[in-house]
Amino acid sequence: LEFASAHLRADKDVAIEAVRQSGYALLHVSEDLKTDIEVVLTAVNKNGDALIYASEKLKADRAVVLQAVRKNGYSLGFASDELKQDKEVVIEAVRQYGEALEFASEELKGDKTVVIEAVKNNGIALM
Predict the structure, then answer these.
(1) Each residue's pLDDT tens digit, 27-64
(2) Does residue 89 contact residue 69 with C-beta atoms inside 8 Å?
(3) For site-directed labelling of 78, which of 12, 68, 69, 85 has its Cα 20 to 30 A away?
């Protein structure tokens, strides 16, 4: 997709097929499509950390971020600050990648339930 014309990078059908193959193709879609929930959900379903390329609006969308952290807990680092304070989102992230605790709000870093889930996944999450 990187070398496709601007017109085709803005085509939703092309974008969906590209991100279905590699979520990271989201980097090369048009800015408008980075705000399209279907395109972004398809991308993060393939590669959770493709969330980095989504619009700020979708980085704050709970459904999108939940899907991303279920695929790759590290993607919590790209979520909005508000969602880093959402206990369910953070628990999903640390269940997938214990070290995602690093990106949780200070309040949730002090939540026993969250920390237990993180160390269940990876004991070094406390380092």
Answers:
(1) 999 999 999 999 999 999 999 999 999 999 999 999 99
(2) yes
(3) 12
- With beta carbons less than 8 A apart as the criterion, state whether 74 and 97 touch: yes
Count Cβ atoms below 10 Å from residue 41 Cβ, excluding itself.
19
pTM of the predicted structure, to 2 decimals: 0.93
Query: How far apart are the C-alpha atoms of 114 and 103, rounded to whole Å?
Result: 12
Distance (Å, whole) CA 63 – CA 5? 31
Strand, coil or helix: 29:
coil
DSSP for 34-71 reads GG-HHHHHHHHHH-GGGGGGS-HHHHT-HHHHHHHHHH
**Residue 118, exposed/middle/buried by CB under 10 A (0-12, 13-18, 19+)?**
buried
Tokens of 71: 């695929």
Q: How many other C-beta atoms lie within 10 A of the C-beta of residue 60?
A: 15
User: Max CA-CA distance within the chain?
Assistant: 50
User: How does DSSP classify residue 104?
Assistant: S
